[in-house]
Amino acid sequence: MTAVLPSRTPAPERPTGGRLIDQFEYGLDAPICLTWELTYACNLACVHCLSSSGRRDPRELSTAEAEAVIDELQRMQVFYVNVGGGEPTVRPDFWHLLDYAIGHDVGVKFSTNGVKLDRARAEQLARTDYVDVQISLDGATAEVNDAVRGAGSFATATRALENLAEAGMKDFKVSVVVTRENAGQLDEFKALTDRYGAQLRITRLRPSGRGADVWDQLHPTQAQQRELYQWLLANGDNVLTGDSFFHLSAFGEALPGLNLCGAGRVVCLIDPVGDVYACPFAIHENFLAGNVRDEGGFQRVWQSSELFADLRSPQTGGACTKCAHFDACRGGCMAAKFFTGLPLDGPDPECVQGYGETALAARDAATVTPKSHIDHSHKGPVRGQPTLLGMPSIPKAAPARICDESPLAGLDLR
Ligand code: SF4
Ligand code: SF4
């Protein structure tokens, strides 16, 4: 593991009382936001996919290995896991693993583009406790959504929403990545979500995976960030945001949600081949802490990895510590800084005070922005593949050799 963070003093003991956020900074015995991407396979080819998904990785965890991970999560008392991908429901054993997790006291919240959520599956989900579903939608209209997620994807997602609503499913979510194209549709998203009796969840576009290729073009402008902040102040109590927008708290009043980068402290990712990263938006070897197949499994990685110990140590805010808004914003998102080539102890590229833009402009012409070593993007055209108007064609990195063999073997992509 390569050291990625400025050097720090050794980690002190986690405080046993006081504010929760102070305890979170020192890490917990088990993650509270564990994301598990079950597969890199996906029927779509969204332009901003954070994990560059498309083709299945033949090294994917087997059913038995996935069950062993769930057993471990049960022992660690991880109460729920965020399951994603790729498109998790194209794994033939997805429904079995869902039942297995729930049967072992691990609740499941899964994200899907809706491709498999027909009436029968919706009714099955409505009958199941401890399961939550998030349907991804990146435009409140087909025109805006399909430009990013592909032709027909709006119709697929809204059909799934209809099926869930008609089946009587409670508390399902519509999950939106806020972009320059849809930032003006927040009220429409809210109305659409209310229509299905669902809840709106909005997240930040990070320059991770294929998102790095379109971030310059799609990330919200400064004016849109301010409007988004005002909108969240007015509507935030009924909208989920996770840790997405705490950098906006530098505009003034703190927003609801986790106001802290939880990477490696309360957040981590298990990827389809069992690699454990500090955060779902940090799929890069610098943030790779270990693999669940290693001796000691996930628990050992979470509790003993050198990288996570480093992330849980007191951090310097670097240039940000001079900022009057540091307590609210804490320098923003580690992954956003890393994948735009900015120092991790400096301002976020979307710093609302404008310091991020200055830092981006001041990057050396020779700066090479880090790229993930993982890319499972489809090699050929995909039905309905999105094309952003005015976008330059995106050069594809040479695919990992391992993915050239039977990339979709055993998967039902209907
Ligand atoms: S790196 Fe960014 S996305 Fe990841 S946990 Fe930190 S703030 Fe959240
Ligand atoms: S300078 Fe740093 S702490 Fe201040 S608002 Fe910008 S990112 Fe946040």
Automatic annotation (TrEMBL):
What cofactor does this chain's UniProt record say it requires?
[4Fe-4S] cluster
User: What are the record keywords, sorted?
Assistant: 4Fe-4S, Iron, Iron-sulfur, Lyase, Metal-binding, S-adenosyl-L-methionine
Q: What is this enzyme's EC?
A: 1.3.98.7, 4.1.99.26
| Pfam families (UniProt xref) | Radical_SAM (PF04055), SPASM (PF13186)
Q: Does the keyword Membrane apply?
A: no
Against CDD domains, the record matches this protein to: Radical_SAM, SPASM_MftC-like
Matching InterPro entries: 4Fe4S-binding_SPASM_dom (IPR023885), Aldolase_TIM (IPR013785), Elp3/MiaA/NifB-like_rSAM (IPR006638), Heme_synthase-like (IPR034480), MftC (IPR023913), Radical_SAM_PqqE_MftC-like (IPR050377), rSAM (IPR007197), rSAM_sf (IPR058240)
Q: Which residues form the Radical SAM core domain?
A: 28-238
Q: Which reaction does it catalyse?
A: [mycofactocin precursor peptide]-C-terminal glycyl-N-{[2-(4-hydroxyphenyl)ethenyl]-3-methylbutanamide} + AH2 + S-adenosyl-L-methionine = [mycofactocin precursor peptide]-C-terminal glycyl-N-{5-[(4-hydroxyphenyl)methyl]-4,4-dimethyl-2-oxopyrrolidin-3-yl}acetamide + 5'-deoxyadenosine + L-methionine + A + H(+); [mycofactocin precursor peptide]-C-terminal glycyl-L-valyl-L-tyrosine + S-adenosyl-L-methionine = [mycofactocin precursor peptide]-C-terminal glycyl-N-{[2-(4-hydroxyphenyl)ethenyl]-3-methylbutanamide} + 5'-deoxyadenosine + L-methionine + CO2
Q: Does the keyword Chaperone apply?
A: no
Q: Which GO terms describe its molecular function?
A: 4 iron, 4 sulfur cluster binding; catalytic activity; metal ion binding
What name appears for this protein in its UniProt entry? Mycofactocin maturase MftC
- Organism of origin is Geodermatophilus ruber
